[in-house]
Amino acid sequence: MQENTQSYWKRVVAVFFLGWALMYANRVVLAPLSMHIGAEWNLTNTQIGLISSGFFLVYTLFQVPAGVLGDILGRRVLLLYGYVLHGVGALCSGLVGGLQAFTSMRLMCGLGQSTYYSTQYAVVSQAVPPERRGFAVAVVNSGMALGMVLGTWLAGVMVYRLGFGWRVPVLVLGAFTLLLSGIMAVVVKRDAPAQGKRKSTSACVTSGLLRIYVSTFCSMYGFYAILTWLPHYLQVERGYAGDVAGAISTVMPLVSVPAGIAAGRMSDTLGRHRLLMFMLPASALALFLLPATEGTFGLLFALLLYGVTGKLTSDPLLVAMVADITTQDSYATVFGVLNFAACAATVLAPTVTGWVSDVTGSFHFGFYLASALSLVACASLLGYKEQRKEVLFVGTRAQRGQGAGPGFRNG
After folding, report:
1. Roughly how many angstroms between the first and final C-alpha of the chain, as a whole number?
2. Helix (H, G, I), strand (E, B) or coil at 363
3. Phi and psi at residue 191, in whole multiples of 5°?
4. Residue 212 CA: distances (Å) to CA of 22, 28, 161, 208, 337
5. What's 259's DSSP letter?
6. Which spans in 42-132 are helix H?
7. Environment class of 239 (CB within 10 Å of its CB; exposed 0-12, middle 13-18, buried 19+)
8. Contact 218, 340 (CB under 8 A)
9. DSSP string, 16-32
10. For domain 2-187+204-384, which architecture applies?
């Protein structure tokens, strides 16, 4: 039985790793194609940013409802229906011909993706032993980095090297997304809907959780400023060719994969808060250096530093911190609120950064704003009292099936 349980959580981590990879590939594939999309419909940078912001507005608005429904109706059902809808929206984004239809499909894609964060992290937090939680979440999160590389690389190769139209990589990713939906249906076990009275929503607004929400919002802002605009910035302001800009943009996510997994494993023994107090100021420095340095060497250094300390590396620690202080029956709801805070930044960052570039004629001030918010992310966690690992995990194996409270999992 124990061997089957261990095998199950590893399969879940693997399939959710791939789930994030395709989620992010479908998001970032449009970034290196923004010049082509803008040229087809004669769009300004602000209008291009609004398409991305519209996607994330829908994604954000449905985070909390999706989390609540996941805890009530069952996480697997919501997870699968949402992922299929995401795949349909992604595929149709490459099939439709008009701007209005394209925008509608991006909104559908955002709606489908909105069910993923809360439900899959609830499944992971319940399936993975607490003493392996930081490591497991980091592995799952590293799929985001793979997706960034995959989406950027696919667009660069297929459009800038092979000469295909911008719709081709969008169609390819949409088809693979629908295929993965079927694999998820096989791997993820059925779960029973919650029974009895729901817990008060006050469980989502404790002092510790509020600090984590603020930190998540601020760190996510900088990440999505880069995610949305870096390839465009490299081409327009730094003068790099499209394929070279795409290659440079993959540096940060590639570095974040081993860095994130290492940080997750370290957090299981050293504590999450201690590592974050180092990583968040370092990521602020990286965002400042991105526009401040001249030449390719300085640019690569800034991206390497952000890859080691930025959102893709710090986010698994924040997710694990939430799981450590939240009871099982509230997992999906609390993760929905957490991602709502994060997604508020994803709505603002693309449009605000694009607007700043239109007003000032440069993306520099947009990146400086992102740097300042990363410092706020660090400040919000000052004074946070983390439960010590030896207290949190004592008796884990003996009590794993007894609902021992925050930090323990049932069955």
Report:
1. 11
2. coil
3. -125, 150
4. 26, 26, 42, 6, 11
5. H
6. 45-61, 63-73, 75-93, 99-113, 116-127
7. exposed
8. no
9. HHHHHHHHHHHHHTTST
10. Up-down Bundle (1.20)
Q: Is 91 within 8 Å of 171 (Cβ atoms)? A: yes
Instruction: Give the span between the Cα atoms of 164 and 232, in whole angstroms.
Output: 19
| Residue for token pair 């061997």 | 3
Q: Please state, in angstroms and rounded to a whole number, the distance separating the CA atoms of residues 404 and 248.
A: 47
Listed by start position, the domains of the chain span 2-187+204-384
359: its two tokens: 């007003």
Name 332's Cβ contacts closer than 8 Å, sequence gap at least 6: 66, 67, 68, 70, 71, 75, 118, 119, 121, 122
Q: What is the torsion angle, in degrees rounded to the nearest 10, for the CA atoms of residue 349, residue 21, residue 257 and residue 221?
A: 10
Amino acid at 285: L
Q: Tens of pLDDT along the chain (411 residues)?
A: 444 567 888 899 999 999 999 999 998 888 888 888 888 888 887 788 788 778 878 888 888 888 888 878 888 889 999 999 999 999 999 888 888 899 899 999 999 999 998 889 888 888 888 778 888 888 898 888 789 889 988 988 898 888 898 999 999 999 999 999 999 999 998 875 555 445 545 567 778 888 999 999 999 999 988 888 888 888 888 888 777 787 788 788 888 888 888 888 888 788 888 889 999 999 999 999 999 988 889 999 999 999 999 988 888 888 888 888 777 777 778 888 888 888 788 778 888 888 888 888 888 999 999 999 999 999 999 877 776 444 344 334 433 333 333 332 332
- DSSP symbol at 271: -
